[in-house]
Amino acid sequence: MTKENSSPIEKLFGSKTRAKLLKLFFETPEKSFYVREMTRVIDEQINSVRRELLNLESIGIIKNETFDNKVYYSANTKHPYCRPLNEMFTKRIDASRDKDVHETTWEEYIRPVKNYLTGLIVTNRLPGQDGIDLLIIGNDKTKKLTRWAEVIEKKQGKPINYVIMTADDFTYRRSVKDRFIEDILEMEITEIIDPEKIIK
């Protein structure tokens, strides 16, 4: 690619791959990606992607976490340049667009445990308020959901109150109007993921 054909953003950051990665990370800083996924999304060679990931990680712009034998990379939202980079690459036009971004966030979060998760309730628990932040419904025999909840806690950057229960346990407690479940459902709920329709 000649310099004349480079976009202004590519010229600014000195590398087409680097510019594409920064856009990927800071357009939606709540999302995380693994290497081969990035190569498909930005349509660049894996060696070039790996090289730029090392560069970006060395200056602290991005971070990585290992989950289920895969390394996931995401924007370092605590870096002082996070906000200006987010403003540079974000194209959120209106409130409905923001809502769409929020709705896809948890879809991204649950991707590593989709085969173990039956349902998820996310509440808007206020500081000091009783209750939980997450009700995780699924198979946790291998502790994958527990480890996933710990990863989410790190991503959120704050302590999270969560409870994990099996689908059978949830269904039974819902049927007998268990007070714990009823209290959760009476809280302000920001997200429900319910592919098997056991919550609604």
Summarize the helices and strands and which ones pair or pack.
Elements: H1 8-13, H2 16-27, E1 32-34, H3 35-42, H4 46-58, E2 62-67, E3 70-75, H5 82-89, H6 95-110, E4 117-123, E5 134-138, H7 144-156, E6 162-165, H8 167-175, H9 179-186, E7 189-193
Helix pairs in contact: 2-5
How would you explain this protein's 3D organization?
By secondary structure, the chain is an alpha+beta fold. The chain has 2 domains: 3-89, Orthogonal Bundle (Arc Repressor Mutant, subunit A); 95-193. It has helices spanning 8-13, 16-27, 35-42, 46-58, 82-89, 95-110, 144-156, 167-175, 179-186; strands at residues 32-34, 62-67, 70-75, 117-123, 134-138, 162-165, 189-193. The strands form 2 sheets. Strands 6-5-4-7 form a 4-stranded mixed beta sheet, with helices on both faces. The chain has a 3-stranded antiparallel beta sheet with strand order 1-3-2, sandwiched between helices. β2 (62-67) and β3 (70-75) form a beta hairpin. The model is unreliable at 92-104 (pLDDT under 50).
In total, the number of strands is: 7
Instruction: Please provide the ordered H/E string of secondary-structure elements.
Output: HHEHHEEHHEEHEHHE
Sheet bearing the most strands, described?
Answer: 4 strands, mixed
Q: Overall mean pLDDT score? A: 82
Termini, distance in Å?
53 Å
Question: Low-confidence stretches at least 5 residues in length (pLDDT < 50)?
Answer: 92-104
Strand order of the largest sheet: 6-5-4-7
